[in-house]
Design brief:
The chain is an alpha+beta fold. The chain contains ten helices and 14 strands. Bound molecules: adenosine-5'-triphosphate (ATP) and magnesium ion. Adenosine-5'-triphosphate (ATP) binds next to helix 8 and helix 10.
């Protein structure tokens, strides 16, 4: 840009008088400010001392949000929140001369970050539209929740089939026995009736036969029906997936969570090893988080440990301990399994990394576990030696107050 010079110095050279060079410099600044304002990609509105619209830039005019007319108030408290808050902010900024920021404002069907920059005659309101970012964030959170739920479903499916197997076997035996007993009853009762006719009434299980004559087939029926009921409950359980609350602010007793995870995984772990033990520290501070989520991580680790054992002579030890130096509660699952190849160690928590494709592994267990532990501000660490085994540790920060004031099952 060139400022035009229209005066001459006494020696014939062009020279600016102080007032014209001031004019030129002002024009230059104005042109610069105009370009900066009009072509700024951030939507901006200039308001006067009373917060009434003076002008808006190109980006603002291109926005979806409806524009208040020139001379109308930019933020109208009559339209309720958030405009009341923004109007107060605008007035405060103009009165104090201090820039003020509002983040994540939900306004006129959009999300905005609003910055109000005052100048002597009014203020510039910068209205950054963050709707797309907010929507992407919400979608990512939704997907993450779905992944967690999907992982839970897979895990629950495994657990339920283990438990169902354990319950089904004795229950099936009951159903078969009840059916056989019923058949036997049908054959036995006419014989017993004849005995009573010939020899008179007699005792069965400390009661007179005549009394239990009608009851006996009913008792057998009750056993059969109860076993059928257990069978349908087990079937329901297979289709059932718990969906817990999503709070991360519970006070969690990690030993109790470990017990719950071990109970759930007991059939699977016992199937993998004859040497399973649990070593809990008696003095363990509570942590803050979501017990069900932490349980989900331990379940994943126990599942991986069980899958890694080459034979039932290899041990799994699950335990808890307090790391005073780091002020962390540590939950460990150690196994004497095949170990993890050093080349894989860095990748095992990547989504979809699995060496068990053929056995139905999804490679999501550890990636979801890691994100759960990190949402608790903790760490999920692994150390492993091929052929010797693996130690997986969940490290969680203790609830403030440390170990001293948390004893006694508080
Ligand atoms: N204790 C362990 N011993 C040996 N390898 C392990 C152990 N834990 C994890 N791994 C390795 O890490 C990989 C990823 O584990 P992750 O739990 O994420 O998925 P997965 O067990 O393969 O499948 P999924 O858990 O989804 O069924 C496993 O495939 C395995 O190679
Ligand atoms: Mg797994």
């Amino acid at each position: 840009m060139h400022a035009k010079r229209n005066t001459s110095s006494p020696n014939g050279n062009a020279a600016a008088s102080p007032s014209t060079s001031l004019d030129a410099s002002l024009r230059e600044k104005e042109a610069f400010n105009f370009a900066l304002f009009q072509h700024n990609p951030l939507p901006m509105v200039v308001v006067d001392h009373d917060g009434h619209v003076l002008k808006s830039n190109l980006a603002r005019r291109a926005q979806q949000m409806p524009l208040p007319a020139l001379g109308a108030p930019l933020f109208d408290p009559q339209r309720g929140e958030p405009e009341t808050m923004l109007d107060i902010g605008l007035r405060k900024a103009i009165a104090s001369g201090d820039v003020c920021h509002f983040t994540d404002v939900s306004w006129a069907k959009t999300w905005c970050n609003v910055t109000i920059a005052p100048f002597p005659q009014g203020a510039v309101a910068i209205l950054e539209d963050i709707t797309a970012r907010k929507q992407a964030q919400a979608q990512a959170e939704h997907q993450q929740k779905q992944l967690i739920q999907a992982d839970k479903m897979v895990m629950l499916g495994n657990l339920v089939s283990g438990v169902a197997h354990e319950v089904s076997n004795p229950n099936n035996a009951m159903i078969l026995s009840a059916t056989a007993l019923k058949r036997m009853c049908n054959d036995l009762l006419p014989i017993l009736d004849r005995v009573r006719e010939q020899e008179g009434d007699f005792d069965v299980g400390m009661r007179a036969y005549s009394e239990i004559r009608e009851e006996l087939p009913e008792l057998v029926d009750v056993v059969g029906k109860a076993a059928q009921r257990i069978k349908s409950l087990v079937d329901d359980l297979k289709a059932y997936a718990r969906k817990g609350p999503e709070t991360l602010s519970e006070t969690v007793d990690v030993n109790a969570v470990l017990d719950a995870a071990v109970n759930l995984m007991n059939p699977i772990v016992r199937n993998a090893t004859r040497r399973f033990s649990v070593e809990k520290s008696a003095e363990l501070p509570r942590v803050v988080g979501n017990a069900q989520r932490i349980e989900q991580v331990i379940v994943n680790l126990l599942s991986n440990a069980s899958q890694a054992l080459p034979n039932p002579q290899c041990a799994i030890v699950a335990g808890t301990r307090w790391d005073a130096d780091a002020a962390q509660v540590v939950i460990e699952v150690r196994d004497e399994g095949r170990g993890i190849d050093p080349a894989h160690l860095e990748r095992i928590t990547d989504p979809f990394f699995t060496t068990r494709q053929d056995d139905g592994g999804t490679g999501l267990g550890l990636s979801i576990s890691k994100s759960i532990v990190e949402s608790h501000k903790g760490q999920l660490l692994f150390s492993s030696e091929v052929g010797k085994g693996t130690v997986a540790s969940i490290r969680l920060p203790a609830r403030t107050g440390g170990i001293a004031n948390q004893r006694g099952g508080q």
